[in-house]
Amino acid sequence: MAVVRSKICGITRVEDALAAVAAGADAIGLVFYAKSPRAVSVAQAQQIIAALPPFVTTVGLFVDIARVELQQLLADVPLDLLQFHGDESLEQCEGYGRPYIKALRVKPGDDLLALMAEFPSASGILLDTYVEGVPGGTGLAFDWSLVPQDLPKPVILAGGLTPENVAAAIAAVKPYAVDVSGGVEVSKGIKDADKVRAFIREVRGG
């Protein structure tokens, strides 16, 4: 059985990043979107990344950010992977010298194969829950049966995942990775180390 990777997103504190890594997280997510309660400053991001050990992927989450702004941010923050979570076009995702993943918000009637095909250079596609006017972090799950099997790119499953439902989500979708934020929190942006450990334990099959 394939190993499913895990990303703990919306990290705002060094201690939460280190707890996620200690629990076995493959990646941590830093939100650079001012409207998010989990947004971090450049200084916060630098501090968190500097504290990490090797072999942990640092992912920056962006929502319709201006190119010049993102270029400046990347000069200041050594991110490994970019996550575009807004209405970005292919052209808006490329050209930063970093691999990227594109988030798609899933709703009934979507042709996920066609939507994925619009981003041929993406390293993977993140599937999140569609809520009108909200780019992500809703804490709501979508209908996992909407995801076709054997999609052509690695799928990162997000949207309302918790330690209680992630095993069922993995069984239904068979994703490359899972991504959690609110499902392992005490409050927005503050992680619960016990929940993080429980989540990753479930991802790894208990």
Automatic annotation (TrEMBL):
GO MF annotations in UniProt: phosphoribosylanthranilate isomerase activity
Residues of the N-(5'phosphoribosyl) anthranilate isomerase (PRAI) domain: 7-201
Catalytic activity from the UniProt record: N-(5-phospho-beta-D-ribosyl)anthranilate = 1-(2-carboxyphenylamino)-1-deoxy-D-ribulose 5-phosphate
Keyword Mitochondrion: no
Pathway the protein acts in: Amino-acid biosynthesis; L-tryptophan biosynthesis; L-tryptophan from chorismate: step 3/5
Enzyme nomenclature, EC number: 5.3.1.24
Keyword Isomerase in annotation: yes
Protein keywords: Amino-acid biosynthesis, Aromatic amino acid biosynthesis, Isomerase, Tryptophan biosynthesis
Biological-process GO terms, alphabetical: L-tryptophan biosynthetic process
Family statement drawn from the similarity comment of this UniProt entry: Belongs to the TrpF family.
NCBIfam families listed in its UniProt record: PRK01222.1-4 (NF002298), PRK01222.1-6 (NF002299)
Protein name per its UniProtKB record: N-(5'-phosphoribosyl)anthranilate isomerase
Organism encoding this protein: Aquipseudomonas ullengensis
